[in-house]
Amino acid sequence: xxxxxxxxxxxxxxxxxxxxxxxxxxxxxxxxxxxxxxxxxxxxxxxxxxxxxxxxxxxxxxxxxxxxxxxxxxxxxxxxxxxxxxxxxxxxxxxxxxxxxxxxxxxxxxxxxxxxxxxxxxxxxxxxxxxxxxxxxxxxxxxxxxxxxxxxxxxxxxxxxxxxxxxxxxxxxxxxxxxxxxxxxxxxxxxxxxxxxxxxxxxxxxxxxxxxxxxxxxxxxxxxxxxxxxxxxxxxxxxxxxxxxxxxxxxxxxxxxxxxxxxxxxxxxxxxxxxxxxxxxxxxxxxxxxxxxxxxxxxxxxxxxxxxxxxxxxxxxxxxxxxxxxxxxxxxxxxxxxxxxxxxxxxxxxxxxxxxxxxxxxxxxxxxxxxxxxxxxxxxxxxx
Length: 384
Ligand code: LLP
Fold this sequence. Notes:
- The protein is 30% helix and 23% strand.
- By secondary structure, it is of the alpha/beta class.
- It folds into 2 domains: 48-265, TIM Barrel; 274-382, Lyase, Ornithine Decarboxylase, Chain A, domain 1 (Beta Barrel).
- Strands 1, 11, 12, 13, 14, 15, 16 and 17 form an 8-stranded mixed beta sheet that branches. Strands 2-3-4-5-6-8-9-10 form an 8-stranded parallel beta barrel, surrounded by 5 helices.
- Helix 11 links the parallel strand 9 and strand 10 (260-263).
- Helix 4 crosses helix 5.
- Bound molecules: ligand LLP.
- Ligand LLP binds at residues 57, 60, 78, 101, 156, 158, 192, 195-196, 226-229, 264-268, 303, 307, 363.
- This is Diaminopimelate decarboxylase.
- It comes from Fulvimonas yonginensis.
């Protein structure tokens, strides 16, 4: 909606720009997160009347201030590791519901999750085959593979052929026999097909497919239709139509009204709230190309390298100057893949200019590394 569209551009305003330039003066590389944008995105999703429980997929960004803001907005939390469970426990009030949705986890990881108030998701036969006593008498969620995947890149599709996630539906009866043998009750069904989905009809289809499986099981009380809500990244791409998503969910919920509807978005809540600030180190002309080097690259933001992801890049020191040079914006890492943006039309830029890499709030800092033993980007929160 309008709130979200305004929020996307938070860093373009003159006040924000002055603030960001001052922050870059202190230190780069640096992530800056704008909490009002997180809250605006949270409220856009809270308008989904068909959804009974929203979890924040904390893997996207685990900054405690963001976890707290989303707890205040009434979100529950989805975690995939003991570390994420501990991060949430340390940051938010103890009443926020937790969902543990790991993949190929250790026995000890499930044991740790079961000792908290988390609802635990299984997605293979192995845990009940080998560690049945751990789950005896428990209620669990079962993640299934609906046979197809979706997403902005092949590497983020989490269903169908070649995907390691979810129990294949052919093994459902075997899972239910094991559950029965260990007095485990399947209270929820879960599917997450991938990340960066902009088609609002997708989640209704998942709900309908899960509901028809749930009818065969009997004990199921809720359906978790995953996250994956995309944000437009390329110029001109249309945002996810949240109202259309809600309409699609209402239709399938009317057909199968007796299940609670859960979702677990990550990116949608935090992507636009975060920017990465870096400073120009050197410029170089080589062959036909003009390179602009900045003081961080794939060590802070690996998405362009890993997925060819497109992040808008702006020269914050010359925001109003015309874009007259076609630059390859690169980092200092010893890999040819260390590119933040190819063929970016930017003002003629100089050493020390502050570059802003947009939409870096999701899967930025959390995927960073200290490769080449570079200093990690720090993180700053803007409350307004
Ligand atoms: N639920 C499950 C089970 C997931 O595996 C994921 C993401 C989510 C929810 C949240 O998805 P989201 O709403 O954020 O799309 N690093 C990649 C994205 C990987 C997503 C992994 N799973 C990227 O930077 O695009």
